[in-house]
Write a structure and sequence with these properties.
Layout (H helix, E strand, L loop, with lengths): L17 H5 L16 H52 L7 E2 L2 E5 L5 E7 L4 E7 L3 H4 L4 E2 L10 E6 L20 E6 L2 E11 L14 E9 L7 E9 L29 H25 L2 H25 L6
Parallel strand pairs: 4-5, 6-9
Antiparallel strand pairs: 1-2, 3-4, 3-7, 5-6, 7-8, 8-10, 9-10
């Protein structure tokens, strides 16, 4: 048997066939590299990427605000509880609106001032100075123009209903007659619940001269859409402790420290983080055109996650502080 090489007929110009010129060539050819599309393709990819990333950011915000923010709350509570125990042992815990080591200076917002323990709803939480949304991310906050718990007068403590651990989520479950305690640098103060008030309910009679009362405040309504405030009034049943002179008045409180207050200053940070996110979207869309879609997403996920969480933290300050 004779093997004969068979070649396709020559082309019209005698220089080879059109079949040979068009047949696939084995191996990699530089001419096969993906080429970037035109401006219209780039803008289309940027728009699609922007919608995906916006959706991920919204989903990330809901997850952060409703669930993951508790991790932040738990971490701060564990660290603050350990530090406050040391301050109690060394007798350096705050007993008034000023710093123990510098009486001429006010307490820094976020300073631990006590520990609230309500056994009937399973709550034990460190209390911090201040009632802004930033402070309440760490736990319940003491209203700065009121005396500390255990002292004569009316003390006020704010707490979140749902986000950042929702320490006051079970506050509506307390009942008249329940007893709870607050530990401060002056000892343990005991309180008995006398009333639960919502919008339109009458105020209880004012405490007698020299006696103390504590009002626990949280949001009322749906957990993530509060429309009013719930107040729990409790009278001091232990012996009142001396109170230093008050140097903070209601006029010194910012709007963000009021019930359901928000922090408009966080809007600047939201805009800056948002601009950074838009820049990242444009860069990732450009990289997807020239590098490859899946390679780009591998890099994009951690970047978008970081920016999403950063924006979520700032947006939380724009929402009601009791949420």
């Amino acid at each position: 048997m004779t093997l004969v090489n068979v070649y396709p007929p020559p082309g019209p110009n005698g220089g080879g066939s059109t079949w040979e010129e068009g047949r696939p060539v084995a191996g990699w050819d530089s001419r096969e590299r993906p080429r970037a599309g035109g401006p219209a393709s780039l803008w289309r990819d940027m728009g699609g990427s922007a919608l995906w990333i916006l959706g991920l950011c919204l989903l990330g915000f809901v997850l952060w605000f409703a669930f993951l923010s508790r991790l932040h709350y738990d971490r701060i509570q564990v660290e603050s509880y350990a530090n406050f125990r040391v301050e109690l042992a060394l007798a350096t815990a705050p007993t008034g609106p000023t710093q123990p080591t510098a009486p001429a200076k006010l307490l820094v917002p976020g300073t631990a001032v006590g520990v609230l323990n309500i056994p009937d709803i399973g709550l034990t939480s460190v209390i911090f100075e201040g009632t802004s949304g930033r402070v309440l991310e760490s736990g319940p906050g003491h209203q700065r123009d009121t005396p500390l718990p255990g002292q004569p007068g009316v003390s006020v403590i704010f707490g979140r209903r749902a986000a950042y651990g929702g320490p006051f989520s079970r506050l509506p479950w307390v009942k008249v007659g329940d007893v709870f305690t607050v530990t401060t640098g002056q000892g343990v103060a005991s309180y008995r619940v006398i009333d639960l008030r919502r919008a339109g309910d009458p105020f209880p009679p004012a405490p007698a001269a020299g006696q103390g009362r504590l009002i626990l405040v949280t949001a009322d309504g749906p957990p993530l859409a509060p429309f009013a405030v719930l107040d729990v009034d409790a009278d001091l049943i232990s012996k009142p402790v001396p109170a230093p002179a008050m140097v903070v008045s209601a006029a010194n409180l910012s709007p963000s420290e009021r019930a359901l207050g928000t922090d408009p200053n966080a809007l600047v940070a939201v805009v800056l983080w948002g601009a950074l996110l838009l820049g990242a979207v444009a860069l990732l869309a450009w990289a997807g055109q020239r590098w490859g879609r899946w390679q780009t997403w591998i890099v994009a996920v951690p970047v978008v996650l970081f920016l999403s969480l950063s924006i979520s933290d700032q947006v939380a300050a724009l929402l009601p502080n009791l949420m």
